[in-house]
């Protein structure tokens, strides 16, 4: 009401002067839009004349490529703009495929674009369901306070800063192959923030160590990262063959960790005594998750079923556990209440007063939907650019113009700037003719190359938010040469140990 009242008191001359400015802005926007539309239609016309397969050198291809680049610029500015990364790539995916389909239709081809899009959607749907089950299990373990109990145990033991530096790094390296590198990094960072609240330097170095360890650990397991999962589901590398990367991944972690350990402060951390009691079903959830992974691996390796079939079957395991926990909820709470009263555990009694039955759809709802939708946008964007022909040209430049080793090392360096998901999906879409050793090499480099910059991996970006002010782009950049040394050492180790595969 106040704004309307004040605007009515403005002199007429001032209102008249403002109106042309507004019209001028509208006119500029309209002219810009009309220019883009005219360029698009002219692009369609030229595409119709030349045929859809040569769109890489026509405006349709240039426009699609520009849309993807602009969308990815918004993705890299996520922390600055506070806009989720899925938004720009979802829009870009739709625009690119509308451009592709329209260009194909105007050249008389109404089937190939549709078939290519369905192929991309099938690949995405398998990965979506696979990741959804894995995220649901991880969220269920978190809801059952398994990770809180682990953190509390580590904090209560009174380890030194140097011991915690190595414990969190080693745990990140060995947990990430099962619980993905992002979840592992967040868990270990929570421990650092708890015990190192009086030592900012320790938190900064510990976060760098965790990012490197989590990315390195995720590189030798199909479950450690989305990129390794894509490689496994594509059938390029078998499940057991990933373990050939264990020693190279360990070298990638240990080289920078050993050097950074000399910079860890000597003072002891503040000891904390806050015990955490896991909820009913926590250990059984872990057991069922391991059974789910076993089901997926056996079905994929011996029956040649998509791994997602075993994962979805494993989701049923968790649902039946949830059903049992609901049926026995009152009896289980009563039993725990008797134990808490006998031991005078007031914290457990307070928790039991607010306890609710386990519902499997709650951890499913807390899945990283922004990441899943971002992956959809990336898969379709890269698929659209591949249909246009850009991936074939890049493949020819990298894998025919260069040697495969140089190309795969470059892929890893690129993943430090551009997220490794589109990089690896692009390589898989190109399908270069490489030896088995080279496929393992690009799996390794794409997995660990992002550690060289804090923005090069999901773990690094997440920890910059969780440890804001302690772990930054510049603090990580100071140790980039050391991390790059580990990157080079891991490549050399792989090429030496697995020389028979090249």
UniProtKB/TrEMBL annotation:
Compartments where found: Membrane
InterPro entries found in the cross-reference section: Cit_transptr-like_dom (IPR004680), NhaD-like (IPR045016)
UniProt entry keywords in alphabetical sequence: Antiport, Ion transport, Membrane, Sodium, Sodium transport, Transmembrane, Transmembrane helix, Transport
Topology within the bilayer: Multi-pass membrane protein
Keyword match Lipid metabolism: no
Pfam families assigned to the protein according to its UniProt record, in alphabetical order: CitMHS
Top-rank taxon, per record: Bacteria
Transmembrane segment boundaries: 29-48, 60-77, 89-108, 120-138, 159-179, 285-303, 309-327, 373-392, 404-427, 439-465, 477-497
Start and end residues of each Citrate transporter-like domain: 99-447
Broad class of where this protein is predominantly found: membrane
Record family assignment: Belongs to the NhaD Na(+)/H(+) (TC 2.A.62) antiporter family.
NCBIfam families: NhaD_1 (NF038006)
UniProt protein name: Sodium:proton antiporter NhaD
Organism field: Marinobacter aromaticivorans
Gene designation: nhaD
């Amino acid at each position: 009401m106040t704004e309307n009242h004040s605007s009515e008191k403005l002199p007429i001359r001032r209102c008249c002067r403002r109106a042309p400015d507004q019209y001028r802005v509208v006119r500029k926007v309209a002219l810009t839009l009309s220019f883009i539309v005219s360029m698009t239609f002219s692009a369609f016309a030229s595409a119709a004349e030349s045929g859809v397969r040569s769109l890489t050198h026509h405006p349709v291809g240039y426009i699609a490529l520009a849309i993807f680049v602009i969308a990815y610029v918004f993705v890299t500015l996520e922390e600055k703009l506070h806009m989720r990364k899925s938004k720009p790539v979802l829009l870009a995916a739709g625009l690119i495929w509308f451009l592709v389909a329209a260009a194909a239709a105007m050249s008389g081809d109404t089937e190939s674009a549709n078939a290519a899009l369905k192929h991309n959607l099938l690949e995405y749907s398998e990965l979506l369901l696979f990741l959804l089950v894995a995220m649901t299990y991880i969220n269920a373990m978190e809801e059952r306070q398994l990770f809180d109990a682990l953190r509390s145990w580590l904090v209560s033991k009174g380890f030194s800063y140097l011991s915690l530096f190595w414990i969190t790094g080693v745990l990140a390296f060995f947990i990430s192959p099962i619980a993905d590198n992002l979840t592992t990094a967040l868990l270990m960072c929570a421990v650092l923030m708890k015990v190192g609240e009086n030592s900012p330097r320790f938190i900064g170095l510990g976060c760098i160590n965790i990012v490197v360890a989590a990315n390195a650990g995720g590189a030798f397991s199909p479950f450690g990262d989305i990129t390794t999962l894509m490689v496994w589901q594509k059938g390029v590398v078998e499940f057991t063959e990933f373990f050939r990367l264990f020693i190279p991944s360990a070298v990638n972690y240990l080289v920078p960790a050993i050097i950074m350990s000399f910079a860890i402060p000597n003072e002891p951390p503040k000891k904390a005594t806050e015990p955490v009691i896991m909820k009913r079903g926590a250990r059984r959830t872990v057991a069922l998750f391991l059974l789910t992974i076993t089901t997926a691996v056996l079905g994929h390796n011996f029956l040649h079923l998509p791994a997602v079939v075993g994962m979805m079957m494993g989701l049923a395991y968790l649902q039946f556990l949830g059903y049992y926990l609901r049926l026995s909820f009152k009896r289980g709470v009563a039993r725990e209440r008797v134990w808490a009263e006998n031991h005078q555990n007031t914290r457990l009694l307070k928790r039991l007063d607010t306890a609710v039955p386990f519902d499997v759809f709650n951890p499913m709802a807390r899945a990283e939907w922004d990441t899943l939708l971002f992956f959809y946008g990336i898969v379709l964007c890269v698929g659209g650019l591949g249909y246009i022909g850009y991936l074939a040209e890049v493949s020819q430049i990298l894998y025919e113009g260069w040697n495969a080793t140089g190309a795969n090392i470059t892929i890893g360096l690129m993943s430090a700037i551009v997220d490794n998901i589109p990089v690896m999906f692009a390589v898989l879409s190109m399908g270069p003719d490489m030896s088995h050793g080279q496929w393992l090499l690009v799996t390794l480099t794409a997995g660990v190359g992002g550690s060289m910059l804090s923005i090069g991996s999901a773990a690094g970006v997440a920890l910059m938010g969780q440890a804001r002010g302690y772990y930054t782009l510049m603090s990580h950049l100071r140790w980039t040469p050391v991390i790059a040394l580990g990157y080079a050492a891991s490549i050399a180790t792989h090429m030496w140990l697995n020389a028979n595969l090249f």
